[in-house]
Task: structure prediction
Amino acid sequence: MCGIIVHKGRGLMMLSEVFYECRADSIKNFIPATQIKTEQDIEEYNAKGYCIGYTADKFVETFPKIPINKIFYNNGFNKTYYYDASKYIVFIVRMYGCETFSSHEDFQNEILRGIKICEEAFIKKEYFKLIAWQNDIIKFELFTSLISSVDIPNAYELFLDIYFNSDYGFNLLNKELIKKVSKYKTDDDKKKTAEKLSFYDDEIVIYRGEGEKSIEHTKAYSWTTDINIAYFFATKFGSKNARIISAEVKKNDVFEVGRDDEKELIIVPNKAYEAKIIKLYDISDFESFYYAIEYNYQKYRELIDKLNYKEGIHGRKHVYRVLLNALILSYLCGINEKDTRVIATAAAWHDCARVHDGTDYLHGLHGAEKYKEKTPKHNPDTYFLIKNHSVNDNDALKELNEIYKKPKEKKRMQLLFNIIKDADGLDRIRLGRGELDVNYLRLEYSRKMVLLARLICDNIK
Result:
């Protein structure tokens, strides 16, 4: 089990790298095709991640219609580009080494058509057509170059379109660029921003989710007012170094209101204050956790198999995951071995009486009765946890206070209850975006486990 999760988990960690490479080509990495003079040049650059098939002379001989001074090689995801800096034209050339995926004649004509379309857009000052479809970083590079050199119709609208439809490239933003963009913000734009901000308090609590490739919050512009959105972005690709930042900002310091679905606010760096950082557990943490809980996980997984769970949303795999979540939380909370067995048993039995995947507040009670019936020496604490995992906290804690009279026992049982509830709640991540609300998690450890819950879900299904 541990080997499988760690292996696939590391594979999942690579997903953020792959996604970044797909969208992170940069003009600064371009080298001109005219620079490739010899076969040795080809070998040297290809060793650095480029994919070059022709020397400059051979390229001109093979593709005489194409202006070689506008052909550039890249060491990112797309390997060849047409680039005319004077007209802000960049587009991908379908060439990988010597391979063009079509006849040389068709290949050349395709590039000439692309040049014609882009040059017409440049002449008409239709800069949106030149920029909007680019990879994230190139979008920002072209826009930065444009706004520094020419007057851009609807520059503010173009900037927002680039900003809201990019995941990377924000490191190219700076106060000078924002100042230039602000000059293009019309009175109507300002009125729209003010109307959106009218619903906010003068001081706004904001959040930011960051991963390995994210810009540090002290230099970042994008924030959200919804902590669950922050968690989504922090855990989106199973990233290393995932973290949640909470802070505050004055309404007057908000530059723009962003996408409604992300409850986004654009804030100039250093305007956010009182920042607090929560680092989420990742796969490297899991390795140490699993070493401590492996025996109990394997033992109680066998119990789950004997209980004949079916497949489905609340089926056997879900119960495996809840067991794993519960054991990790027990370890983090310092639960002794006796109470760890109580929690593990409750996790194994918790959905045994479910007959459908809809709302069923009584399946906990029915499961507890089934556990009692099938277990002659049943544990009353385990019975309580199974019964109450499916009811709201107020009702469960009311019963807890009636059963457990001593303060020490109340405190102990409430912790066990919180663990089993959060272990089950963390697996709501399996249901998709927005289904896990971290505001309902009871333990700080649980809020740090959201990334692990995603990795566990991705590997036990």
Observations:
- Confidence is low (pLDDT under 50) at residues 1-14.
- The chain is about 50% helix and 10% strand.
- Residues 283-306 form the longest helix (24 residues).
- The chain has three domains: 25-164, 184-279, 283-459.
